[in-house]
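step 3/5: co-fold with beta-D-fructofuranose
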Amino acid sequence: MESQKLLLARAYEKEGGEKIDPSARPRFHLSPYLGWMNDPNGFSYYKGEYHLFYQYNPYSTVWDSMHWGHAVSPDLLHWTYLPAALAPDQPYDSFGCFSGSAIDLADGRQLLLYTGVRKEEGGERQTQCVAVGDGLNYRKCAQNPVIDGPALPAGLSRSSFRDPKVWREPDGSLRCVVGGCGGDGLGRILLFSSPDGFRWAFESILAENGGRLGRMWECPDFFPLDGKHVLLVSPQDMLPEGLEYHNGNGTVCMIGRYDEAKKRFYPEKDQAIDCGIDFYAPQTVLTPDGRRVMIGWMQNWDTCAPTRDEARPWFGQMSLPRELSVQNGRLYQRPLRELEDHRSGRVEHRDAAFEGELTLPGVEGRTVDLELTIRPQDGGAPCRRFTLRFAQDGRRHTALSFRPHESVLEIDRSFSGSRRACVHQRRCLVPSRDGTLKLRVILDRFSAEVFVNDGEQVLTAAITTDEAAKGISFAADGPVRMDVTKYDLFAEG
Ligand code: FRU
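step 4/5: write tokens
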């Protein structure tokens, strides 16, 4: 039976989505066709294209009635909207089709594994469900839900059990990790296996939250990378730990060892995935040439309500696709290398020596790839504070400031034009290295992603500053030398 709810959503999004001028959206970051977007879902490569689904409410720019929006891309940088893929139209998902993932089946179809949420007496019930389709239309399966409460070990919550991430093992069988929660209110990552995507069995508690990293763990992803195993989670209710983690919803990468006999992951190190303001619920895909690429929701629950621009018919963006690697026990992220094919108008200033304030000819814009290295002048002491401002006009700017003596890098959008008192600053510790710092800053109209020291850390922030503010400037309270290379991105039209 055709779903009326899905047909309605598809008609509604088409009418409103087509009216949005592409110049009012980010240039190469995915935004929702219409309405509200949160987590990336079903990030996959299927039939020669990348598919990216997303948590979606086409009807307004606030979270409600979770559908799955859908877009495809040949290269992860040019996106084409497809009609919404899932609507909450069944008794088992009537409160929403929550986050999940996708995998191709042996028969050529694509399987979506998602969390169906329903309300029942005593609260919410979350189960894992499947829909199968051809890359455009998906049919929910009669045997849903495919993973339900009875499959869970005793004591685990049936109302906090969500966000399955599926992958294929070398023997062809499937596995998935799902976020769960113990009676102590703390996150568990549950591992399930399946011969075919439809029949699932509980395997193990892959990892558990000892209480240090927030409470519930949402949106897990688990994969081998550079000789290690990596577990990504998005914990709720984090506490700060020095400058590594911040209060509220955060993102954590654990790097460690996986024991296949015990089906257990032993983290050795953990770190924030993104140290900025707006990043959550990332998901990865393995590209055909073997790269592990991650995209996250370029917002965060704690900051999204106050930063909504009421005049805009869409809310939420995805981050850049980021190539992941593990080096020296740390997760590194680099912008997808194909972004470099869309750079033009190179402006280069080498060895610019200055103290005080500086603007450089040709260095401005809001869809920009900026590479910057600073160092003290001629063996002298580092300055106390170096500041890069962007999205700047006479009244507004967003700033990145580096204080070498404290090894602190801070992003601050207090002056970006926001009239709300929400989080506008975040800091992280960057090894000082004698006052030398290397940054790559990617601006795409309504966002900034800052890759520090070749991707050792990343700070991301969404901004709503209108595009007229396109200045970029530099300030240092002591003598510094700078190499700056700036490109326009996607200037071809
Ligand atoms: C994370 C999350 C997921 C859930 C989805 C609902 O941002 O809370 O755990 O599946 O959003 O939209």
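step 5/5: annotate
The longest strand covers residues 471-489.
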